[in-house]
Write a structure and sequence with these properties.
The protein is α/β, with parallel strands linked by helices and about 525 residues long. The chain contains 14 helices and 15 strands. The longest helix is centred in the middle third of the chain and has 31 residues. It comes from Tistrella arctica.
Length: about 525
């Protein structure tokens, strides 16, 4: 049962595609994030936090429901979420907490009982139940219209594209450096979204509320404003990729290197990501770091508004990313991969009551997951988590109290059916339902299980870059067996239990659901 406390507020900042090893608060010389560093200094950095899936839709469905993907079954962005999975915003509304939304959740509603032509099914958007302040549309059209209007134009300028990605592609093809953004400083999308958050905070005089600020960056296109590029000397060099060795890790690794396009990093690039020349990879990595600085600048403005209006004393601030980014490693950009950089992400939580807390400004190394977001927020508001919630509140960890039975491994999965040109795919999947892996990772190993393909085992102590699959090495057979058993135990323990605590009785339905 949650600990009851006076109603307070939550500022939930969710960025898109930020790597775990570039987390603010770690003192990294190539990461320019002073605002988030300061937030970490008055809170805690979770150094082993994991998303449960990629891409955005599956990851965010887990954040919203507190359930693993094998339960909520959103395995891709366009896949609807069943209405019986109640989400964070619904629990907050029931408790009298206003759930404000800026950005997006990459959600599709349950289609049953609705017209298939309903505009809600034209593409992923904001989940129903939020009070939407400013939505980042899937095609960015509303942002583009705002930017044009702020430039004083009655409509699109001659030859100015309406499409977001086309603007970036044309900019590069016109001869601009790959790192440079075509956006006008002050009219970039991070500013547009942060402006809305500042307005909401200035107008909210009464608790309780939760403000979800969803920033699109550092998601590609990997191009940044000049002033942010100037702050970053450049990215650390990449280790040389041996194509044959990378492809030998697993058929999925070879498939992704073969099909992931360079345009996943920047729409102006042609060919495969795996074939990009080193100088282009370096430029893209530089732009990515500059986008982290851009996000930090806008978060600084939002946190300043929180202080200016006296809300910093009663607002829990959570900073997190939906999933990670490969950043040129393994010849890949984007989040579609079997390596932990896609699933391990940064998280910072600052509790305003923690001025004398032993974990203030600390790093928390316990394994935490996206399933923990919902119970953490509900706990903050004194709301009991629903029976189907698979996660646990992180507030005890912030207070320096670690439950003895805290998890010792993270579980994540990925459905890659859309990357396979035809089925059956020999050595990989017999049909679309087999184009999937589920992984379990602890301090020592990462094990990936495929229903129709051989498994993957990475020894993280000897191979932290995850370049060698040792699953078939006889010396590792006991590890494979143990990890497989742990994965099955986890799946059985966390099967959907939405109605399992409800009971029919002579007096009617009893229990919780």
């Amino acid at each position: 049962m949650s600990r009851h406390r006076p109603a307070r507020n939550v500022l939930l900042i969710v960025v898109d595609q930020w790597r775990w090893d570039l987390s603010p608060g770690l003192g990294l010389p190539h990461v320019a994030t002073p605002a988030l560093d300061a937030l970490a200094a008055r809170g805690a950095v979770f150094t082993r936090h994991f998303a449960q899936s990629v891409p955005c839709g599956p990851a965010r469905a887990t954040m919203a429901t507190g359930q693993y993907p094998f339960t909520h079954r959103v395995f891709s962005n366009p896949v609807p979420l069943s209405a019986h999975h109640r989400q964070l915003q619904h629990h907050l509304r029931d408790a009298g907490v206003t759930p404000w939304m800026i950005g997006y959740t990459t959600s599709v509603p349950d289609p049953r009982g609705r017209n298939p032509a309903d505009p809600a099914f034209t593409g992923p958007s904001v989940a129903e139940g939020w009070r939407v302040v400013r939505e980042m549309a899937e095609d960015k059209s509303n942002y583009m219209a705002w930017a044009r209007n702020r430039q004083g134009e009655p409509g699109p300028a001659p030859h100015a594209p309406d499409d977001y990605d086309t603007a970036f592609a044309n900019h590069l093809r016109a001869g601009a450096p790959v790192e440079a953004s075509p956006q006008t400083d002050g009219l970039h999308d991070s500013r547009w979204l942060a402006d809305a958050a500042v307005d909401v905070i200035s107008q909210q005089q009464h608790a309780p509320w939760l403000l979800h600020l969803g920033l699109f960056r550092p998601h590609p296109p990997l191009a940044a404003l000049a002033r942010h590029l100037a702050r970053i000397p450049g990215a650390p060099p990449l280790a040389k990729v041996e194509a044959m060795a990378e492809d030998a890790i697993h058929p999925l690794a070879a498939l992704l290197r073969a099909v992931v396009p360079a345009s996943i990093a920047h729409p102006g690039l042609d060919g495969r990501a795996a074939d990009l020349p080193p100088e282009t990879v370096a430029a893209l990595r530089h732009a990515y770091l500059a986008l982290l600085a851009e996000v930090d600048d806008e978060i600084a403005r939002v946190l300043a508004a929180l202080r200016r209006h006296g809300r910093d004393q009663d607002t829990l601030v959570i900073f997190m990313s939906d999933h990670g980014e490969q950043w040129g490693e393994h010849g890949l950009f984007g989040k579609r991969a079997l390596h932990q950089a896609s699933f391990r992400v940064p998280m910072i939580i600052a509790d305003p009551r923690a001025t004398a807390d032993p974990t203030r400004g600390s790093r928390i190394a316990h394994i935490t997951e996206h399933v923990d977001l919902l119970p953490t927020v509900l706990d903050w508001f004194g709301i009991a988590p629903p029976p189907q919630c698979a996660g646990r509140s992180l507030l005890p960890l912030l207070a320096g109290d670690t439950p003895e039975d805290w998890r010792t491994a993270a579980v994540y999965e990925h459905d890659f059916r859309d990357k396979i040109p035809a089925f059956p795919a020999p050595g990989l999947a017999r049909d679309p339902h087999g184009a999937h892996f589920c992984a379990i990772q602890d301090e020592a190993f990462a094990y990936l299980h495929f229903p129709d393909a051989d498994p993957v085992l990475f020894d993280l102590a000897t191979d932290p870059a995850q370049t060698r699959n040792v699953a078939t090495d006889p010396a590792y057979a006991p590890v494979v067996a143990t990890m497989m058993r742990r994965l099955l135990d986890h799946r059985m323990r966390h099967a959907d239990r939405t109605l399992t605590e409800a009971r029919a009785t002579p007096a009617g339905l009893a229990g919780r659901w």
